[in-house]
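Our collaborator T.R. sent over the components below with a one-line note: 'Predict the complex.' Nothing else. No constraints on interfaces, no templates requested, no preferences about which chain binds where. So this is a plain run: every listed entity goes in together, and whatever single assembly comes back becomes the starting point for the next discussion.
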Amino acid sequence: MLDSDPQPKSSPEAHPTSVIALTGGVGGAKLAFGLHRIVAPGEFMAICNTGDDFYHLGLEISPDIDTVLYTLSGLADPSRGWGRRDETWNFMAALKEIGGHTWFQLGDQDLATHIERTKRLAEGETLSTVTDYFRRQLGIATRIVPMSDDPVRTRLRTTMGWIDFQDYFVRQNCAPMVKEITFDNVEAAHIAPAILPALNNPDLQAVVICPSNPLISVEPILAVPGMRKALRSCTAPVIGVSPIINGQAVRGPTAKLMEELGFKSSASAVAQRYTDVIDIWVVDESDANTCVPTGVEKVVTKTLMTTTKDREKLAQNVLAAVQ
Amino acid sequence: MLDSDPQPKSSPEAHPTSVIALTGGVGGAKLAFGLHRIVAPGEFMAICNTGDDFYHLGLEISPDIDTVLYTLSGLADPSRGWGRRDETWNFMAALKEIGGHTWFQLGDQDLATHIERTKRLAEGETLSTVTDYFRRQLGIATRIVPMSDDPVRTRLRTTMGWIDFQDYFVRQNCAPMVKEITFDNVEAAHIAPAILPALNNPDLQAVVICPSNPLISVEPILAVPGMRKALRSCTAPVIGVSPIINGQAVRGPTAKLMEELGFKSSASAVAQRYTDVIDIWVVDESDANTCVPTGVEKVVTKTLMTTTKDREKLAQNVLAAVQ
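Returned assembly:
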């Protein structure tokens, strides 16, 4: 930092990014939280999936960004896996009373995020700008960045026809059988402006692919044009962390989805999907025998994250794998 | 009702309107509540001021309509004068946390009304349709109708320049000195579709102008093109109820506003503003000596409404004045 730099020493912007993570919601956010805790303040950047974003009740909702915002600020509900702690549901009860759609739960506090985001986007701000504003307001030194400022929407072709992601995931509780996944508008999407400079930063130490659902959380990010190429050409090693433990998905629809689409739900099958971008593949001790693609280094550790200590420990082990 | 009418006997639509009221928020809604209680179910229609409506945080907010909806459904807060009873404010607290505008209080339950209204208007419904949907959902037999489906916005020229109504009323707590009031877009506004048929109904018994602020609650309604003419030509008597008690406004900025605009805050001065439309002017016992315009009949009664009984009693006295 130059002496003439007007920013205070504690400003996160004074630091170059040393670690980047690609993450979806719940599972990925746990490791993002661990990295946030152990990387020097302001040197960590979380790139979030926005394929799950949707427009509902007139509101622009970004579930994965919000999960990361809430998790990193300590506002996340510790048991539910989404939304805010100490949440109340009086809005939902009143909405039900007047006949509104109540299949997607919106807590009273959580609503503030959606209303303020919708207002700012309508005023012409980008999703990057709004997200950066929120993380500053919540006192988060880590930069939180959407994969793109352009709308990309995950849709699924099922036995019931094409349906939007949240319709499938929440309203129908993943019940319809999935035949195909698509990321609408992804061809036209641009990588969010903060991402390429961070990936090209020579001080970058590691890029982590969090243990999120590969099909619906990580692949929308990788599908943004130029993203795979940027990861391949980045000088820092790319470390994928398997979302599979003992041959099974920890939670969520990963296993069911992979099976329906003809993939084996295994640490090895997930690694195959990232072959061109990862240098290291981190698997759980229970999957120690996993085959990894040629040229990819396998690291075996404990990947289940239950406590904050688990998250920090996995983050440490992931970063240690780089050395 | 014809025998072949498919509607159940209890349907409010089976009844012709026998009483209509023009009302603003708090003060007017009290008398509207009294009328709602004593008029046969489904035979009362409340026409609401929408000059106070505004767009805030991306939401379409109709304060007077909502006060009437909440008051007639029993959901209104009994002491505050606006919003819902047993309200919570967790949205506002979270909005403050992320740096949003918090000068206009929006309760968690109240938000449901604004979000659902905004959604339905964006989908192409009219304010009349949305309001009618809400009153049905809340089990209100009384029809609640906006003065117009077209946006009319009360604005005030003050010592600080032109400001929007809610900015003046809530944000600045009526502090700026007012020099002029205007109802933006009123020339282009059309009377809401349910109003003229109700006013022209030969079974109509009475039209009541509630004791709302004349300048900012009643006059926006009267300013909609054709409204004064429709009231003058309506066969039922038009009964105005004075918002003044003992030479003073009961609450709100009526007195200050009238004084700043050069009018005397008296029952007589208010009556002058309605001269062309009213047949009867109801004043409080404390204003028994009020002069009324030629051709207008004066009725003296107790007009302060504290309890539900007061509201019903005044409603009874107002309708008795017609006989």
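Summary for T.R.: The domain at 12-320 of chain A is CATH 3.40.50.10680 (Rossmann fold).
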